Structures are given as structure tokens and as C-alpha cells.
Amino acid sequence: MSARNHLPSGLVTFLFTDIEGSTRLAQMLGAGYRPVLSEHRRLLRTTLAASGGTELFTEGDSFFVAFPDASAALDACLAAQRALAEHDWPTPDSVPRVRMGLHTGHAEPMAGEYASAEVHRAARIAAAAHGGQVLCSGATARYATPLPPGVSLLDLGLHRLRGFDDRERLFQLVAPGLERQFPRPRTADNIPHNLPTQATSFVGRGAERSELRRLTQANRLVTVVGAGGAGKTRLAVEVAAGVVEAHPDGVWFVDVATVTDPGLVAFAIAAVLGLRPEPGRPMVETLVEYAASRRVLFVLDTCDAQPAATAEVISRLLAGGGGVRVLATSRESFGLPGEVVWRIPPLSGEPGPDGSPSDALALLLDRTAAARGGRPAGSAEIDGLQRVAARLDGLPLAIELAAARLRVLSAGQLAERLDDVLGALDAGREGPERPVANGRRWMGNQHDTVDLAAAAMGGAPVPGVRAAQRSAIQRHVTMQATVTWSYRTLSPRSARLLRWLAVFSGPVDLATVEWLMEDDDPLDALSVLVDKSMVQAEPHASGSTYRMLDPIRAYAARRLADAGEEETARNRHVAWCLHALRRAGLGSDGQPVTLSLYALDPLADELRAALRWTATRGSARNGLQLAAGLGHWWRERGLAREGRLWLFRLYGRIAETGEQIPEAELAATYHMHSLQAGADGELAEELRFSQRAEAAARRAGDAGLLARVLAGRAAPLIDMAQFTEAERVCREVIGWADDNGVPGDALFAIFRLAELLWRRGALEEAAELLASARPIETALPVERGRRSVDMVLGMVALARGDLVAAHDHLVVALRSRMNHGFHGRACDTLTAMAVRCAWGAEPVLAARLFGAAQAAGTALRCAPGIYSSYWLREQAAVREVLGDRAFDAAYAEGARLSLEEAVALALAVDHPDLAAGSGRFTGIETPKQRAGEGGELVRWQATEHPEGG
């Protein structure tokens, strides 16, 4: 029989519950919301039924339950809240915050339900509660006595429930395990405010909200400063909504952008308070007098529209009464005593600790779903959306505009168009010179400010206010309008600096800005740009750096072209990049130092921007010089294909302009191109450009250059498995370089010959050759960090069975290569260390290092190289020792390591025992022998020689 046939009658206690913010929780959790909702229902049903409650209905996240006893109902609520609090939810953010409301009154069930005003009163009490709070009426409090030990009811006073004329005394259940501090109940007589009603949900910024709320509570004037479209207004309103209860005389929002006459700022603020002018008395005095004895928070938005007038009114308000606080938003600070300037950061691009989307991506996902009629983005679009969010520098307005474009574009298509940020985001929208009819920034009472201001003036129109309102709306219609709003306030010097800074892709230091502007001291102009939030200042221990958000940079770049300054500024930027490349190879004393590719990592975006200019409108010769400085970096970062593409674009620029390039520079470029092609697996292209390099070097008549080019000829031959021919070429080049007095320029041929000798087992000759190469390598800053001599000597030592020497050489090579950023070459050395561990009775560690080296090498697009068959042979031997399952587990574990983690693991390997009897030259057991399977002692030598070498 249904439980509804046994509904309590007479004195009945009704309970309503629901999840506070369930819609937002569902949006945040997505597919994860359903299990949370189900678990919430299970916990409530278990605890409520155990106390004798009868469930009448469940709808969504709501419960309606009837109890025959008020004490049992309170006990049930207490048990339910404790169960919810103690439950192990998936994440802290997924905890459902349930509000509960109780009321007791006489009621009789009819046809399995109640038709009584007492039910509606209980529902209104539940609606007044906050998540985690249990509220009850005076009647429930009266009939629930006595209370259990440690439990009490806190009197919250009289409140008018919505829909009821009388006032109800509300009580809050207080007990161990329950929250105690809550805002005032959400009843009809709540604290007044005029905060705008938001049309969209607020996404992310949890840390920023907490910090800004703390500052607002601790300081009387807080100014939120940031670029246009950074989300200042939205964040300020969100924070203000959370501190309403702390200001019993109200929280009042005023958009200063609706005021064009400085004298009307005080009128705009007074208007929202309903104040009228007093004859013969300035409105600011009336305003100050009204606020003097009150605890009130003014949220003054877009104060940069009238900075001086707004600062004056704020100063008067703060001086007039200690209960007045101001939360302002502006693109620049006021400079008032006691002002706390808080610069709003971009939306975070970092994923949450639980793997949830970053704030920037979460906002883009939310707004994209809204733009597409509620249809969320598919998993296939996530990568594209992440690219879009990252490119927009976490600027909320830019993300909102991008979401609108995703109605007609896929995420990938939009990401491809973001080289022209303004064009991609603003296309199809009204610009600043074309008004938008009936546009509203807020869903709510933005226009009330204007209407009340008119009423305060006796019903007469306020001059300029309507026009200002339209301007305020237009400034957020497009990114161009947003930035123009600030650009028009700049002095000529500040505007010029902003335009010229657009040539930089990333942050720059003060010395770089001074270098760019040459004789024009930029400090004053730079300070203005920082104060107006058009340039972001980022302090570091070594000094501040300065950068523009991408949408602002795009705007400044347009202005740069419009001003006819682009060619001069871009060429100056190219010159700076060439200077930075040269400086990366010099120490503080101006002398050459060992090349470190880490010095080029922070320059990469700047160099790409400079290459783009040289390949389209600048000097191709300068572009080739930039490419020459990036040759090693491209290969070691797995970007050889990118390098090849830049070189082809530069060749096209040369053909277009007919620019004359010296033969020596062409030879060096073609040689470097050959190396990029080889690293990218393009063997025919590698050989073709090697031949072009040789021809250009011969025309240049530079013996050293020709030796370097010829030394590289062995590489494509090795890649094509022509080992005998490669050895012949190496010997010829080495001999020719000696005869022409440039032996050091044949170093690359020496390394290749040593590897070829190692391959066919001529270990003594390889070792002698490498010994002669040591002083040459040491003398060359470009080669010292790679320690190729030690790498090949380590391989020779492995082939000899000398585990100690192998360890010593490989550790030196691996440490140096990682210390100087040669990541691609470090992968080879890491694999060699895996072999060393296999021969050192550490097969599990060997398998992990094999996995790590393979994963890193694949990510860096490393070519197999001359050692590839050896690696495979040794890896197979380790697999045979461990068995497939153990080997695969260790290999997979290594593949999950980063290159840095894997190198640290390899460098931590204990040094082989040097004690007598260690077996240094007595033969090394094979993996099978160490496993106890017997077999002969062996040393590896290549057995397959396609050319009989």
C-alpha cells in the first residue's frame, strides 16, 4: 500500500529542501552532475525516512516531506545535513549545498495530498534559507522541545515571507557539524541594493573573488584597474553581491560612463539613492550628508570616463562618514590617499587541480553553448577552443565575442583566423562610429540612473547623458571600440609608444623598450600606458617586464600601419632580434660562451614575428641571418619542419625582390637547410640542399666554409644507408681540411667517421680519432655544450665492454646536453644510458629509460640515426630478460616521464664499482647470463653491412 495512504494529520510538520545553486552546479559538473544528484537523493531519503518522514514528492533537486512530529523533523534535518557534509563527494566544488525549511501547523490530507496554506508557508521558509542552513518557523520551534544535547535554535527575528502579509519569526538550527554563519534570510524585507541583474552566469575567478572581497572588507576605497574588456565590472558586481548583508544601508551601483558632464557625477550617484537637489546647496553636499551616518557601499563603474570628477566625489564621501566604502572600476587609478589599487588579472589559462577546464576555457565553453542554443561544444572541438582561449590572453570580452563567432565557425576555423584578432572577433558587428539601436549593457536598471537623474533635475533631461549612455554601450560592442575608448585619452608620445610596442609578440624589459625607441626616453610614456592598463607591468626579481594583451596589440598594430610607421618599427624590431641572437652567445664580459639553447626559448615568439616580417615585407637577407641563429634550436626542439617552411618562404621573398645575398651566406643557409631536412626525414631534400651548399661555398672561395659544408655531406649518405661511401667522404673531407689549414671545420666529419668506425667495430681507431677531436670541440662555443666526443666515446666503451668508461662518458654528455638545452641529442644519450643500465644488471630501470627516450624522441621528431638497430637489439634483449608483461609495464612507466624527469633518473644511476674484480675488462655478462640462463660472453658488433663495410 502506498505511503500516501498513511499521511500524518492534525499537527503536521512540513519540510521542503532543495540544492542552492543547482543550475550552476549542473553547468559546472556537466555529466558529473547526475551521480551527485542521485547520491544527494539517496542520503536524504535514508535520513528523512529513518525519522518517520513521508515523502510526498521529489522534483529535480527538491524534496517535500511530512512528519507527524516536529522534533523528529528537526532530527531528520540535522542528520541529513551531517550526512551531506561528511560524505566523500568527487571534488570540493561538487558538494551540494542543501537548504531546508520547516513549518508546523494543522493540516488534513485529502486524496493523498495536502491543500493548506501551512504547506506554502513551509515552502517560503525553505526559499529564505541558504545552502547548508536549516530554518524553521516559530511554531516548529515551539513544538520541537526539548532539543537534543548540544542542539539549539538561533532566533533570527521577524521576517515577511513572500506572499504573506504577516511576519514570521524564523529560527536557525545550530548544532555541531553544521555551519553557523549565513547571510540574512532571503525574505521580502531584504537589504536594498540596485546591483544589475546578470543575463549570463558568472564563470571562474574563485581566487580573485575571495581576494577582492577581502580587500573590500578591509579597506574603504578599492579600485579595480584593468584593460577594457578585462571583466572589471562583472567581477565588482559579483563581489558586491556577496557583501550586501554587511551594508545595512545598501549597496548602490552607478555607471559613471553614462555621464559626460563632470558636474553630474554627484547627481548620478544621488539619483540611485532617490535624493533630490536642495535649493542653494551643491548636490555633493546633500549626498555626503545622506551617507555620513550610514553603512553603505558604492560600486562606481567605469570611473575613467570622468576620473577627476569621480575622484573628487569619492574623496568627499570618504571624508564625510566612516561607514562609507567605495568599490570602483577604472582603467587607471585615482591616486587618492588610502586607495588600494587592485589590478584584475586575465582569466587563468591553467586547468584546475582536479583537471577541470581553466577559467578562460570554462567561460568560452559556457558562452559557446549559449551562442549555439544550449548545445555544448563537442569533445572534438576542445583542442581548438583551448587554442582560442589561449590566444585571447584570458580577456573576458574577447572570449565573449569569440563565442558569438562560434555560431558560424568551428573552433578550429576561428583559431586559424586569430592572427587578425580584431577582424576575427569584430566581423559583422557595429563599430564605435555606428550606434547600436536599443542596445543594453545590463538586463536590469542601467537606464534607471539616467531617468532618476532627470527626475532629480525636476524632470528635465540631463544634458549629454543619453548620448553618453549610448557611448557606454558601444564601447563593449567590439574590441576596437573598447580599446579606442582608452586610446583617445593618450598623449601623442604615449600613443606612439603603444603603436611601436605592437611589434613585440611577448613581454619586454625596460632596456628593450629604450632600445626600440632609441633617443626618445620612453619611461614617462610607458608609465602612462601602465596606469591606463593598456600595457601590463609584471614585476620580477630581476626587474619588471611589460606586455600587451593580444587584442590590444592587434589594435595598436592597426594604428601603427595607419600612422605610416610600420616599416620603420618592424625593421627596428628585426634589428633587435638579430642583436638578441648575438647577445645570447656572449657572456657578461662580451666574450663568447658555450651555446645554450635555453637562451633562445624566450626569444622564439619574437624571432617568429621578425621572420614573418622579413618573409613578407622586409629584408630576406635579415631573415636568413635570423634563421641561421635558429638552426640548432629548430632541430633540438623538434621543429625542423617549421625551419624548412621559413626557409622556403625566405627563398620566395628573394625571388620576389631580387635582393642580392652573398654566396657565403647562401652556402651557410643551404647547409643549415640540409640539416633541417635530414632531421625531418626528407632525404632527397637533404642531399639536394647539401649539393647547393657546396656549389655556393666553392663560389665564395672560403675554405673553412667549404670544409663545414662538405663535412655535412656524410649525413644524407648515412641516412640512405650508404655507409662505405659516407666513410670515404668523411676521410676525404678531413684530409682536405688538414691540407688547407682548417682542420677544425671538419669536426662534423670526424664525428660521423667515428660513428661509422664504431658501427663496423674499429673501436681503437674511433677512440684515437675522437681523442684528436677533443681540443677542437672544446674550442668551439657552439659544440662544447653538445659533448659529442663523450657521447661517441661512451658508445665505444659500451662496445668494448668497459662499463665504467661508458658510464663516465655518457653521464658527462647527458648532463651537458640537458644543461645547454640540446633536447634532441639528449634523447640519444638517454637511450645509451638505458643500454648501460641493461649491462649493469638493472633491466627494469633500462626498460623505463628506453620508454622515456622513445616518448621524448617521438615528441621531438628525432630521426632514427646510425644507432637505431643497436637500440632495438639491446631493447629486445631486456624484454627477453624481463618478459613481455614486466617490460611493457616499466616501458610505459618511463614513457609517462617528462624528459627532465627521465634525465634526472638516468643521472641518479650509481657509478659502477671500481674495486678489484669488478669485471671492468673481464667481460660483461649478457642479460641472459645475469638471469641465470647461461650462454657465451658477447660484445655487440654490427653484422649487417649492406655495402660490405
From TrEMBL:
Pfam families assigned to the protein according to its UniProt record, in alphabetical order: Guanylate_cyc, HTH_77
PROSITE patterns reported in the protein's UniProt record: GUANYLATE_CYCLASE_2
Domain Guanylate cyclase: 13-126
Location of the region described as Disordered in the Swiss-Prot/TrEMBL record: 919-949
SUPFAM superfamilies: Nucleotide cyclase, P-loop containing nucleoside triphosphate hydrolases, TPR-like
PANTHER family from the UniProt entry: HTH-TYPE TRANSCRIPTIONAL REGULATOR RV0890C-RELATED (PTHR47691:SF3), REGULATOR-RELATED (PTHR47691)
Protein name, as recorded: Adenylate/guanylate cyclase domain-containing protein
Natural source organism: Plantactinospora siamensis
Origin organism lineage: Bacteria, Bacillati, Actinomycetota, Actinomycetes, Micromonosporales
